[in-house]
Amino acid sequence: MEFEWDRIALQLAKEIEEKIIPLFGTKKAGESVGTNVSGDVTKYVDRVAEDVILKELSPLGINIVSEEVGEIDSGSDYTAVIDPLDGSYNFYTGIPIFAFSIGVFKGKKPVYGAIYEFLTKNFYEAKPGEGAYLNGRPIKVNDPEPGKESLSFYTRGRCMEVVKKVKRIRVLGAIAVELAYVARGSLDGVFDIRNYVRPTDVAAGVLLVKEAGGIVTDESGRDFRVELSATEKTNIIAVANERLLNIILEAIKNEP
Ligand code: MN
Ligand code: MN
After folding, report:
1. Which of 4, 43, 140, 188 is the most buried (most CB within 10 A)?
2. What's the 161 CA to ligand 2 centre distance in angstroms?
3. What pLDDT sits at residue 123?
4. What residues are paired with 80 via a beta bridge?
5. What is the set of domains in the chain, with CATH numbers?
């Protein structure tokens, strides 16, 4: 069976949007309602967003890997790796940086990725070999001059030397959004080496950055592979160019 992933992704995003936007910045959104498969606290808004995923995707018979419910194996060739709301903390504290993320795989191969920023209504998409797009228009990573880069990073205090080697630090608190920003050239790189990022956070963003001409690796510089798991934790480096990758890898190597 063939699926129109672009239509499915946008429809899911719009339905989540309808349900969650009235909760933006509210106490209610941030109320704890349980724990997810990774043992993290589930907030009310996460539950609301996840319910949409289950209701809309279950009838398609595809496998689902999602942040709150975990892995649902339907025996399908296709697996959708989803974060219904990346940036929940931003959402319930009223910071307008959060997004829906979906990466679709046939077997283990990526076939489609999309990120939707609810407030700007920016819809980012990528297919392997076909480039990356923002609202239907092609996007590319930036080509910053040395020393002029803007970078986001999550290191728990490690690798602070990178601060001196770039111009701007932008830590936005939603890795899916930050990956989309690297793909469109608003950020030149983002890395998270806390062993904290899950496949659900980055499944779409990895494809977007690669298709926009960027580089995505693990903490040792090896090509990043998305595991079809809701609980696995990983490290990620996504950058516009080799030079910035080397600055980050060097900083990691220099750590005691
Ligand atoms: Mn997330
Ligand atoms: Mn989430």
Report:
1. 188
2. 30
3. 98
4. 64, 104
5. 5-137 (3.30.540.10), 150-254 (3.40.190.80)
Q: How far is CA 46 from the centre of its chain?
A: 15
Burial class of residue 111 in the structure, from the number of CB atoms within 10 Å of its CB (0-12 exposed, 13-18 middle, 19+ buried): middle
Tell me the CA–centroid distance for residue 98 and ligand 1, in Å: 9
Q: Is residue 172 within 8 Å of 198, Cβ to Cβ?
A: no
What the block records as the tokens of 74 is 């339907």
Classified as helix, coil or strand, 140 is coil
> What's the CA-to-centroid distance between 144 and ligand 2, angstroms?
31
Q: How far does the centroid of ligand 1 lie from the alpha carbon of residue 62, in Å?
A: 21
The confidence score (pLDDT) of residue 172 equals 98
Closest C-alpha among 53, 44, 121 to residue 81: 53
pTM passes above 0.90? yes
Q: In this structure, what are the phi and psi dihedrals at residue 242, rounded to the nearest 5 degrees?
A: -60, -40
Tell me what pLDDT residue 1 has. 66
DSSP letter at 145?
P
